[in-house]
Design goal:
The protein is of the alpha/beta class. It contains 10 helices and 9 strands. It has a 9-stranded mixed beta sheet with strand order 1-4-3-2-5-6-7-8-9, sandwiched between helices.
């Protein structure tokens, strides 16, 4: 991948070299999917250097183009601090990039085994005291912390999509999360101009435990033929003040990600209301994953 000019400089990284960290903040983001891209845009837009890691080089190349476009959009929308030079993006396929980070954000697929394996590897590579963040939307933080060499370094920070437009982040303190990690995540979120709301550890925490079953119920209403997706969203917006409607929100989250989160909630809470609706499963089977695939409950083509 070639180096790009402003507004985004992106450089491929030789996995045998060490990244050049900022004196205060240097992020490594693991996973170049929807959330990894969004978190990277947020950080770059606030002047922080980011090393974006994914095992798929083609996905990394696509992500660099997406990041470029989303940075431009964020600037046009006034979502980035004026006068702050953009951070530098480096991409690579090796987790060894975390060695130079002051904080690592894990944003891989919402699968407990995959996340635990990634975090376990990272825990063995970073300097002691490095802040480790999992961006899980539903898996208890302490469940993942069990895979780490130093579980006290792990914090849950649930960024909403798109992170550069949503000014609040849900911060989850696990049972073993230490005070230094909590102080470090507070400092980082301050640098990103995000308001942190700290909650206790539990499946789905607050946002996913409330929002995802509601989306599931909305999907069931459509599945049962009571109303169309557009009508459900119109009623939720017009009558109950939901800003986008639950099913447009599902498309933004990614319907596959939503199904994964609901599955975690169902398994860990036993709440049958969290069992993914058949319509959601059908959309995933058809590849209708929402905005990222061009079609979900709505057509974005």
């Amino acid at each position: 991948m070639s180096t790009k000019e402003n507004p985004l400089s992106t450089t491929p990284h030789d996995d045998h070299d060490s990244p050049q960290p900022s004196p205060r903040h240097a992020l490594t983001v693991l996973g170049a999917g929807v959330m990894g891209v969004g978190i990277t845009v947020l950080a770059l837009g606030h002047g922080l250097p980011v090393h974006l890691v994914d095992v798929d080089r083609e996905r990394l190349d696509r992500a660099a183009d997406l990041i470029d476009g989303e940075l431009r959009l964020a600037e046009l929308m006034g979502a980035l601090p004026a006068g702050t030079p953009l951070g530098t993006l480096v991409t690579g396929t090796s987790a060894k990039a975390v060695a130079g980070a002051t904080a690592v954000v894990e944003a891989v697929t919402e699968n407990a085994e995959v996340k635990a394996a990634v975090l376990a590897e990272v825990s063995g590579l970073v300097r002691p005291g490095t802040l480790l963040i999992t961006n899980t939307s539903s898996i208890p933080v302490d469940e993942l912390a069990g895979a780490l060499e130093r579980p006290e370094e792990l914090v849950g920070t649930h960024f909403m999509n798109p992170p550069y437009l949503i000014g609040t982040a849900e911060v989850v303190r696990g049972a073993r999360t230490g005070e230094p990690a909590m102080a470090a995540v507070a400092e980082l979120l301050t640098a990103l101009r995000r308001r942190a709301v700290v909650v206790r550890d539990a499946p789905g925490f607050v946002t996913s435990r409330v929002l995802h079953p509601m989306i599931n119920d909305a999907a069931r209403v459509v599945q049962e033929g009571t109303a169309t997706a557009a009508d459900v969203d119109a009623l939720m917006q017009g009558c109950l003040g939901h800003p986008t409607g639950p099913l447009r929100t599902a498309d933004l989250i990614g319907i596959d990600n939503l199904v994964d989160s609901l599955t975690v909630l169902h398994e860990r809470t036993g709440d049958d209301g969290c069992r993914p609706a058949e319509l959601l499963l059908q959309l995933v089977r058809e590849g209708r994953l929402g905005r990222k695939s061009g079609r979900g409950f709505y057509d974005y083509a």
